[in-house]
Amino acid sequence: MEKNSFPKNFFYRHAKFVAPDLIGCYLIKNNKDKDQIKGIIVETEAYSQEEEACHGYRKITQSNQSLFGKPGTFYIYKSYGIHHCLNIVTDKENFASGVLIRSVFIPEKNERIASGPGLVTKTFGIDISFNSLEVFNNNLWISQRDSILAKKDFVQTTRIGISKAKNIKWRWYLKNSRSVSKRVKGDRTPKFE
Questions:
Q1: Is residue 148 part of a domain?
Q2: Predicted local distance difference test score (pLDDT) of residue 5
Q3: CATH number of the domain within which 135 lies
Q4: Which residues contact 20 (CB under 8 A, 6 or more apart)?
Q5: With bands split at pLDDT 50, 70 and 90, how would you rate the model's confidence at 10?
Q6: What is the DSSP letter of 100?
Q7: Are 13 and 79 in contact (CB under 8 A)?
Q8: Are 55 and 67 in contact (CB under 8 A)?
């Protein structure tokens, strides 16, 4: 699979447009022993400095400066000092906008192994060393989805685990995936086929 299969300006858009477009794309990592782990992104959240839940809402700091960096790079941070979270920087430089990768489905593995941001980074072995690296030019990358998804394939809802800007509907997930971290009330987990 080619690393550079996105249009050049794909990440140069607001996070709220990039986040749903990343659903169905592949997160891929080559490990040192020539082993590869590959999964389908099934849940994302958008963040932007225009709203209070974004790490860049107040100002640029040493810990969030990569979020203000070049679109199409990784922003990695540690949540509650426990687990790392994988984000893709979007929109434009010097403007905090990013997409959190919340859940990934990995074929032939436990369907819940990467259901949540901390589980994604744990499963893929992602840590702070990937911070500010480009999405295409290293051993961790994102590749475009194989098929076209329709609006009916997604659920759009509010984000999880935040105390501010809770009513903004900037979380998307793939409706037919059993690997989503948390479903909207009333949306039942699909049965096995």
A1: yes
A2: 73
A3: 3.10.300.10
A4: 44, 154, 156, 172
A5: very high
A6: E
A7: no
A8: yes
- Residue 94 covered by a domain: yes
> Cα–Cα distance between 17 and 33 in angstroms, integer?
36
Domain of residue 146: give its range.
15-174
Say how many domains are in the chain.
Answer: 1
Report yes or no: 21 and 144 within 8 Å, Cβ to Cβ.
no
CB-based burial, 26-65: b 16+ in 10 Å, e otherwise: bbbbeeeeeeebebbbbbbbbbbbeeebbbbbeeeeeebe
Please list, in sequence order, all residues whose beta carbon lies within 8 angstroms of the beta carbon of residue 143, skipping any fewer than 6 positions away.
1, 2, 3, 5, 25, 26, 28
Domain-embedded: residue 43: yes
The mean pLDDT of the chain is 93
